[in-house]
Amino acid sequence: MPLRHVIEIRRDDNGRIKSAGGVEGKLVEMLSSKLGFDYEFILPGDRSWGKLEDGIWNGMIGMVHRNESDIALGDITISEKRMNAVDFLPYAIEDSTFVTRLPKAVLKPAAFLIPFQWPVWLTLFLTVACVLIVFKCIMKKKISRRKLLLSIISSVFAKPFSFHVECMRDRIIVGSWIITTFILSSVYTARLLSSLTVPLSENGVRTIKDLASAVSKGKYKCLTNRGSVNLNLLNESFDGDLSVIKEGMAEVDWFSPDGAIVAPPKIRENVAILGPRWFFTLEYGEPPHTDKYIFKESVSLVNIGMAVNKNFCCKETLRKVISQLLNSGVFKQLYNEEFYKSRWRLLSDRKPIHFGPKALSMSDLLGPFVLLGGGYFLGLLALMFNVIRYKFYR
């Protein structure tokens, strides 16, 4: 089964398969060199790993079971049903997980609202109203309500009061409010600067529990590669969240124009894809050079192996050589080479996505400037209204 990074088929000018790259393609070359055998690649007509349908095995498992081929390769998951049809020579352990698009960045023009949640903002507005009443009722110095309100609001922005107090009681009241506003403004300023220099993102769906909740509400859709065992693994799971996700799961083809299996290059919003973690890492890369998010949780942990016919003569010899390659670290080296090849490909094809600190731009400060301009505009309207009213009543 042609699978990018695993078995990459190369054809000659006549369209015949001449060699194979990828991790398992190189593994076959090593086995051929070590044991001295020739081989020929045969692709399954239905482009499937193998499922039992109406009592008949299809795909690669079916070809090995019917003795149409001796060995099957291509990231084949070992399962109990498949072991009834063929034998396996395991060489890796694979975990499956979900991948989604990275959550969207928080809207920058509203960045000045980010430091506090809406309950905090509501509490601040109510506090200003309460402080106005307290100052008016308790303070010995008599000040107009308008002047007192403007002084309280300006103190929130680290501006001095527009009046002086001499009574000790008034000094304690005003001083306590100044200390409170100093702490609040300092926290707000520090939080605002950090949120601007380090871009914030929406929480999004980052765990299996979050995904199950989103699927149950109809907000998310889950996809997996057609013909894989991923859907069967979900059916066999006793986890409640995975059972919910299974109900919203659909199988789609991941074939590229040249017939190889590749991960979907673009993932739509509100879509999660289930597949092998290592495959997603090779296909999408790692931060900061990716716009995809790979879940840290695993859905399943399965063995990967080479499928051979139960009557194949050289099973034990193959098993011994594969064990030697694994123990010597050769198979791990093959994976590392493919990983670095994939990383260079991603670096050349994509621009890095910055997640760390960065210089502030005009778009980062658009919200405060819009707020300032809106305030000036309202002030101008108030001035024009007062001028017109003065001339009207004069």
Automatic annotation (TrEMBL):
Primary site of residence: membrane
Coiled-coil regions listed: none
SMART domains assigned to the protein according to its UniProt record, in alphabetical order: Lig_chan-Glu_bd (SM00918)
Membrane-spanning parts: 118-139, 172-190, 365-388
Membrane topology: Multi-pass membrane protein
Location(s), subcellular: Cell membrane
Organism this protein belongs to: Argiope bruennichi
Protein name, as recorded: Glutamate receptor ionotropic like protein
